[in-house]
Design goal:
Length: 629
């Protein structure tokens, strides 16, 4: 492996300080002649002692010897020694690293990479050594809290670094204060440039480690099970950014004292969020709260975070003091439609775009659309998510003035949020997913159950699929005998029908079964592949019996209540019939007595003449009166 990747002798690098307009904040830059490969000869690295340990490996202080024709140089570097990876997957990691190596060297918000090597069968990544991190500074401070100006300043530097990595298509996934390195000028750079991202798709020997793509306290819900609750996207990094900012402001790590399993239960299952301290600038408070949206589509992008921090920093220092702690916040949701302001700001409309009225993501009923389809012919000045546009609609004479938050762009008949089916069937992932973005050239990014990241391809490979909404009922398709996930059965052995409680961004359905009666901790919530199920309504059930069976799907108490009601009805009907028959017999007997008259009296007298007086008195109410004793 070393022989395969060993390059020719390289010239030594050197450091210099870059002036960027502020003489008090010079940036240290490492200059190296063109380096064609990131490979470092293992003999050129001398490990000295371990200085840290993380979920992906150990960090060592080392010396990097660079030799050239003119002179030798020795650089003090930090070396990240990863946990063992199977040898047949090492080359895959090295190839991915090489793709980003030269690009990452041009980034100002990311630590300087020296290269990569293999020592004792372990991958080692060498980068410039920094004396401390934001995490170290928090630990040294009394109370652990950083001042608001420092938090904003560090936050801006971090947002720049993350945004630069995102521009290269690299996800960090391990954002935390101990990975925010501080240089000699108190400027912050990202020390972890995406090792979890490079490890994605590579089997790891430790199964516990394999289910995590970051540090538990800073991981977004989709990071725990990206193939099921994903996909992992740029918005995944904003969750870790929010956790880090909260720790800087409070001095307390999110979910402190909880195990990884307890954090999983809190973040993924219970959908709990870290507490954001009060008294922040409105823009910062709003954007940090947005970072903790459970649905990643409703989180802000790093560009939104950068804008909020920069605008708040200017406000803080504009008058030399902190102002407007109680300023009004921008609402996170608009019109109760489950869309955040961040979701709506991710696609700015342009003149010529085809648009339609935005559909509610959880609507089970058909909607009347103000704009079934139209074309934007004009934009108001400074149009943003709260602005208006002019839309020309067929068969309407004048263009309509419509708020942009109520419109969505349509490209090749598809829009963000549409359920689509991949035309080419595959066994690697579900064939049904949800569109996350679609460019004007027709290229789309889709979340599919079974994929850790977004599928990217042209919209010509997609077709619209049946949408699934929260609250609608679903059952397994007749041709599905082994569903992707466990699915409960009824007592008779047939598959149960459930109700959708949640949809994940990749189309994975969370289905609950109100028609099942469960005991104790028995689960009643199951995951479902949208390709395995179909929607059902009363109309889709044939006959009265089928409709009654669907009624039982609404709640387990439907059957016992129906039985109890039936028994009660039968008893009441029986009592009513009995009373009616008794009243009829009594009336008939009374009429017969009155109609016969004397004949009955004669007959009674004849009958009572030979019966003993006490008995006759009992039977006929007459006869000789008993003598008082």
């Amino acid at each position: 492996m070393a022989e395969k990747n060993a390059p020719a002798q390289q010239r030594a690098s050197f450091d210099y300080e870059l002036y960027e307009g502020d003489p008090d904040h010079l940036r240290t830059v490492v200059a190296t002649p063109n380096q064609a490969t990131p490979w470092i000869d293992p003999a050129a690295l001398k490990l000295r002692h371990r200085i840290g340990r993380g979920p992906f490996g150990d960090v060592w202080l080392a010396t990097h010897h660079q030799s050239s024709e003119e002179h030798d140089r020795y650089h003090e570097v930090a070396v990240k020694m990863l946990h063992p990876i199977k040898e047949d997957h090492m080359q895959k990691f090295l190839d991915k690293f090489e793709e980003i190596f030269l690009k990452s060297r041009q980034l100002r918000g990311v630590c300087w990479l020296h290269g990569i090597t293999i020592i004792s069968g372990k991958i080692c990544i060498a980068f410039k050594f920094y004396e401390g991190s934001v995490g170290d500074r928090i630990a040294r401070l009394k109370g652990g809290k950083l001042s608001l100006p420092d938090v904003l300043r560090y936050g801006i530097g971090l947002a720049i670094g993350i945004q630069e990595l995102h521009s290269l298509g690299i996800l960090v996934l391990n954002i935390k204060p101990t990975n925010f390195l501080i240089d000699d000028h108190d400027q912050v750079v990202i020390g972890d440039f995406g090792i979890p991202y490079l490890l994605m798709g590579i089997p790891l020997p430790d199964s516990n480690f394999a289910i995590r793509l970051g540090t538990p306290s800073y991981m977004a819900p989709e990071q725990w099970e990206p193939e099921v609750r994903g996909p992992i996207t740029f918005e995944t990094d904003t969750w870790g950014f929010g956790c880090s900012i909260v720790e800087m402001l409070t001095g307390v790590q999110p979910w402190l004292g909880k195990s990884a399993e307890e954090i999983y239960q809190s973040v993924v299952m219970k959908q709990e969020k870290p507490l954001v301290p009060a008294g922040l600038p409105p823009a910062v408070e709003n954007v940090i709260n947005g970072c903790f949206e459970y649905d990643l589509r409703n989180r802000p992008l790093v560009a939104d975070i950068l804008h909020a921090f920069e605008s708040s920093q200017n406000a803080v220092y504009s008058d030399g003091e902190w102002i407007s702690l109680e300023s009004r916040k921008v609402p996170e949701k608009l019109s109760g439609k489950c869309f955040s302001t961040w979701f709506l700001s991710k696609d700015l409309l342009q003149v010529g775009d085809t648009v339609r009225s935005r559909k509610s993501p959880n609507s089970c009923k058909p909607q009347s659309m103000v704009v079934p389809e139209g074309t934007i012919v004009g934009l108001e000045k400074d149009t943003d998510r709260d602005g208006f546009v002019l839309v020309r609609v067929p068969r309407v004479h004048d263009p309509l003035r419509i708020n942009v938050s109520t419109l969505e762009r349509v490209t090749t008949g598809l829009a963000v949020g549409d359920w689509v089916r991949l035309m080419e069937e595959t066994n690697k992932h579900s064939s049904i997913g949800i569109i996350h973005s679609i460019r004007r050239d027709g290229n789309a990014a889709v979340g599919f159950l079974g994929l850790e990241t977004l599928w990217e391809g042209h919209s010509s490979k997609l077709q619209l699929a049946e949408p699934y909404s929260v609250g609608s009922f679903v059952r397994l398709k007749a041709n599905v005998f082994t569903p992707r996930f466990e699915w409960p059965r009824k007592k008779g052995g047939t598959w149960s029908t459930g109700r959708i409680a949640q949809t994940h961004p990749n189309g994975c359905l969370v289905v609950k079964f109100p028609g099942r009666f469960v005991f104790g901790n028995e689960p009643n919530s199951f995951l479902a592949d949208p390709a395995d199920v179909e929607s059902v309504t009363f109309d889709s059930y044939p006959g009265l019996v089928g409709k009654y069976q669907h009624l039982e799907d609404y709640h387990w108490a439907a059957r016992p209540l129906t039985i109890a009601f039936s028994v009660f009805t039968v008893m009441k009907f029986g009592i009513y019939v009995g009373k009616s028959m008794g009243a009829g017999i009594k009336r008939k007997g009374h009429n017969q007595i009155r109609g016969d008259g004397h004949a009955q009296d004669a007959q009674t007298a004849a009958n009572s003449s030979w019966i003993p007086p006490p008995v006759a008195n009992i039977l006929f109410g007459e006869g000789p009166t008993a003598t008082a004793r």
